[in-house]
Amino acid sequence: MSHKNNKTVPKVARPALVILGILLIASNLRAPLTGLGPILDFISHDLGLSATQAGMLTTLPLLAFALFSPVSSGLARKIGLEPSLMIALVLVGAGVLIRSGGSTLMLFLGTCIIGVGIAIGNVLLPSLLKRDFPKQVTTLTAVYVLIMGIGSTLSSSTAIPMMKLAGSMGFNAIPHWAFALATVLIFPVISIIVWLPQLAGHTRPSADTADIDSHSYLWRSAAAWQVTIFLGLNSFIMYIFISWLPSILIDNGYTENQAGYLHGVLQLSTAVPALVLIPLMAKMKDKRAMSFAMAILAFIGILGLLMMPEHALIWVICFGFSCGGGFILGLSFVGIRTHDAHQAAALSGMAQCMGYLLAATGPIIFGSLHESTHSWEVPLYMTLAVCVVWGFLALFAGRSHVIVRTQSGKDIVIDAPVHETLQDELKRLKKELALMTEERNELKKAFNAKL
């Protein structure tokens, strides 16, 4: 998946253009979904959806993430990263349009299509960073997660104002809630325009690239499972609170407006860690202490909601920071623990497939515990136990060891600095081999000319 047409884009400008494209793609990975929450009651009332049907609108994207994450790396191997990411953007845009049609069928169909597009983007962005910016993986991961958080906050905070705007304008072609959902289309449209030059400079994969090892051995790798479960547990508790936090707060005496405000604070606080972690992640090779700290913060936030719910603002910020930081670290592990873009895409697909399957069960398990016990205490204690397991996994997932496939078919791990030295040496040897081949060809031509 190399690029040969670099002449079409100046060398200095090209990295900046790629980074801009990455950040714009990242803005699509949450915004189309988070804008649904604030207006879900209006949608349910207008379409006559039951509570279970309304809940499926949250679960469907997670299931799409799980089902299509493994497919994404195979798509990239066959047609390349750039075209695959363009397909992701087109799917998100098409899903937004279909979802805004105003009917129940189009609402669910569009939500599924959006989920497929986001799944592809979620898996392939870490792979793209690994290929084009291998030494800035952690920093750029933190930045694009920040953009994801900003995009989701904008989408969530503007949903009701956009719905009211449609009413004040007398716009009745589609329901007002559908108009609010349609405004999110600006994210994929701008991203598609900016990403188009990357298609022009793209070279199709070589014949053997499409048949490259699928890295199925990762499913038998302890190191790969450490990263996978770390990301999975982070998503598990995060989506529980995205789904249930307002209900927990209202039952503890908060008004609906206050609960909605704190729910917005939760989403915004997931973006804050990027600002704090960007300078730290570049300096710290070993991420175990940082990862463990995220689990501790989540534990403190949940315990605070249990013991002192009157100070929910503090606990929500604490919890949101931990989950946002954990997500950044988990994504960065995909780049840190792999040795090339293909392996990064495969590990990303594995981690996000299992992670989102786990996340989809979180709100259901939490709700079932609440329904059977008629209390929030038991389900909240369950999440505390999950935080303990999450912290234990952090001590393994955060290592700087790189997963390497050997000729025997087994995987080993080696220290990242050693791996970087080996990679540099391999590149040097490849250059020398290319020069020797060129000299040999010239000598052969000269010899044939004399004959």
TrEMBL record:
It comes from the Bacteria. Residues 419-446 form a coiled coil. Pfam families: MFS_1 (PF07690). InterPro entries: MFS (IPR011701), MFS_Cyanate_Porter (IPR052524), MFS_dom (IPR020846), MFS_trans_sf (IPR036259). Residues 16-402 form the Major facilitator superfamily (MFS) profile domain. The chain crosses the membrane at residues 12-29, 49-68, 80-98, 104-125, 137-154, 174-196, 217-241, 261-282, 289-307, 313-334, 346-366, 378-398. Keywords: Coiled coil, Membrane, Transmembrane, Transmembrane helix. PROSITE patterns: MFS (PS50850). This is MFS transporter. It comes from Photobacterium leiognathi. The lineage of its organism: Bacteria, Pseudomonadati, Pseudomonadota, Gammaproteobacteria, Vibrionales.
